[in-house]
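Box S2. Input/output pair 1.
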Amino acid sequence: MKIKLLFLLLSFTCFHFVQAQITFQKTYGTPKNDWGYGVTQTFDGGYALASVYDSNKIAIIKTDSIGDTTWVKMYPYLIANINWGDFIIQTSDSNYVLVGGAADSSGFMLKVNSIGDTLWLKKLPNNTYMNILHKVIEDKFGNLIVVGETYVGKPTVCCAPIMFKADHLGNTIWSLPINCPYPTGCRLQEVYIDKFDGNYLVTGDAPAYGPPVLRLVKLDTAGKYIWNSVFTSISASISSVISTRDSGYLCTGESWTYDSLPLYKIDKKGNLKFYKGYPDSNSSASVIDTTTGGYLIAGQKHIYSTNYDLFLSKLDTNYNVLWNASFGGSNTEQFGYMKATSDGGAVLVGSTNSFGAGEYDAYLVKTNYKGLITGQNVISVAQNGISISPNPFSQKTIIKTEKNFSNATLTLYNSLGQVVRTLNGITGKEFALNRGNLPPGIYLLRITQEGKVASSKLIIED
């Protein structure tokens, strides 16, 4: 039986100063199927989710830093191919780019502004066969590098890889025919910018009929090959890659032996240095990212029968497991993506059939640096209680504390993550926040004092 989670905004909001990191797990959706595939931490400290929403509509879900929905935008001109997800990044101009596959068999690249309104849409020409775009990244010049594949539809050939570079308007700079090492075809799942030299790492597998073999390609920014490595002795797919301190790379993905989560160390010349499997974290999909003191790996873990949970593991710099964590309910969860967060924690997105509004819902999990969810919304302590009343308000609200404010700072953010009000040097037990010329809407209020932070949603109405 599903548990429906309700998050209520009370008219009288209480909150507390916190030392701990923000953690939460929340669902987003409709009574129909809603899927979470990609996530990025946004410049305002919130999150943007790439979703297939309300059964089949490409969508973006924007949240604040505590996981509360800021806005949801669906794009009815893009009906999703629900066999494949979509992926999102926030670009340097504070907008968003979304890539994926549409039901008309075309791969798409969509750019929207900071509130989700369409700026432009580019689609690969749809032909007899299906195009899927899996990943997009932005380089330091604002250009976009995209990878995916075309499904060829022949009995002995699975697919042909897609890779292209576009400018900030989506216009193609170059399109590269990545060669497949076998006549059965190959696919591209990940593109990554090397942190040391700025060149591109492209990952995937080949072939895709029968157990695939590992593949990693390094290209310069003009799309010319630096090296092209195929590891014929390993039946697996690489879906994620990061740079290491020795200018090499760590890769993970899906093991086709299904007995462990694979980790591959590859040197800067494309040679495989070692393989390590983690049998307690057997996964059918995984992503790796760097964090303080090591690495984070996330994916979905087989629990029993056909059920999966999301999982997160931290490795030290010698690739030993420091801790494992799993997330989910009594039914099944499906993994989408994971990123390390700026506070040392992690954010995972996926889909859950264990709780939510109905069917599958998009599922967002924010952990602390130990992989724990220590409470819903803002993690609070039972001291230094603060209250806001009234909330919502139209002209003025009063902010009170059980103890004294001491040289505190109030910062108010609008729904775009822009700072619209700052008050410094706050002292005493209470103070008034006047609306002034602020338009009606939902705001995020933060009070900082002696390194501690208190946050709350604030609503202004006419």
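Box S3. Input/output pair 2.
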Amino acid sequence: MKGTEIEAFESRYDYKLTAILVAIDALSATVRQDNPIAVLTIPR
């Protein structure tokens, strides 16, 4: 969250957030229906 979002939350709910790390990195693969692929490999 951005600093302004954290400040807005804390101002609205009157308590501080507790940060919990849930991921370091993420990967997403999206395929369009009109451009399908049969196989997805690491090099692709």
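Caption for Box S3: The mean pLDDT is 84. The chain has one helix and no strands.
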